[in-house]
Design brief:
It is a single chain. The protein has 283 residues and is of the alpha/beta class. The protein starts with 10 loop residues before the first strand and ends with a helix. The strands form 3 sheets. Strands 2-1-3-4-5 form a 5-stranded mixed β-sheet, sandwiched between helices. A 4-stranded mixed β-sheet has the order 7-6-8-9, sandwiched between helices. A 3-stranded antiparallel β-sheet has the order 10-12-11, covered by helices on one side. Helix 3 packs across helix 6 and helix 8 runs antiparallel to helix 9. Helix content is 37%, strand content 20%. The chain is built from 9 helices and 12 strands.
Amino acid sequence: FPNDLNLRGVRIVVDCAHGATYHIAGHVFHELGAEVVSIGNQPDGMNINYECGATKPSAMQAAVKQHRADVGIALDGDGDRVIMADADGTLYDGDQLLYAIAKHRQQCGQFKGGIAGTLMTNLGLELALERLNIPFGRAKVGDRYVLEMLLAKGWQWGGENSGHIVCLDKHTTGDGIISALQVLTALRLSGATLRDYTAELILLPQVLLNVKIKNGFDYKKAPEIQQAVKQAESELGANGRVLLRPSGTEPLIRVMVEGKLEDQVQTLAKRIAYTVETAAKAA
């Protein structure tokens, strides 16, 4: 956070998820001048992430409205993820926060390289970055893979829609507090709200369905599945995306479809999921 900038006059709700940042996060924003309302800051060893934090930001949303805060910040239990909210309680995920950071760095003449996302990053972010002439790459899902891409390409910024954000010009790994400070810097210097600052980013409807399969089933060898995917991609054109990804922990295939039209996305996702389910049963 810039030395010549402060957060005086800003009321912030900080949800620490009863986790690692419970005794740190509130003080950080308070020391910068903000009026802080801390929640999720009473860990008992059992309540970490329970009904709070970045994985359940509704608690933060409610507190923002209750206390008429200007912004809300929800961290997760180990403090490496962040989700934020505007004064009206609207949530902003990792894709939107990463866009705000990239846009600000570019406006300040500090941007170089590109942005690393993952296979699950919303296509809307990729298109918005393209309009800013910012290169974008997709890594496998997981912040470790985002970091690997950043190091391989010599880039500095990347993240996941879940709220893992990496800013290598400020730190060496994901840190929710530091990531939130980068967003707040952009908002303070621009005088804009989160809604206004990220207005150019239109997230596309995205549907994710989990399909149970038999252990050992290889969906890539099922021609009917490949045909269903190709048909969906043809219908979506350049404004959509289809992704099939096996779970790393369960016998599941995750079917993701995104595009401009929500009804179309829902229909195509269900069609592909049904094809996967049918092929898996017949295998």
